[in-house]
Amino acid sequence: MTGSFVTVVCPDCENEQIVFQNASTTVNCAVCGTTLATPTGGKADINGEVADVVEAR
Question: Cα–Cα distance between 31 and 7 in angstroms, integer?
């Protein structure tokens, strides 16, 4: 499994959430439901600000 976990800041409510950079499903914000990551077949399309890389592999 290659990829990283990143902390994404939600553009609507500014909640910070950890997301797998190669997500294979749509990831929504746990607070407001805004889409944070959309799968593309490789690296996911991140729809917020990447604040930090939690774990790199």
Answer: 15
Write down the pTM of the prediction: 0.82
Strand 35-38, strand 27-28: pairing: antiparallel
- Cβ of 25: how many Cβ atoms within 10 Å? 10
What Cα–Cα distance (Å) separates residue 55 from each residue in 11, 12, 19, 27, 43?
A: 22, 25, 11, 18, 15
Question: What pLDDT digit, counting tens, does each position of 3-57 carry?
Answer: 789 999 999 999 999 999 999 999 999 999 999 999 998 899 999 999 999 866 5
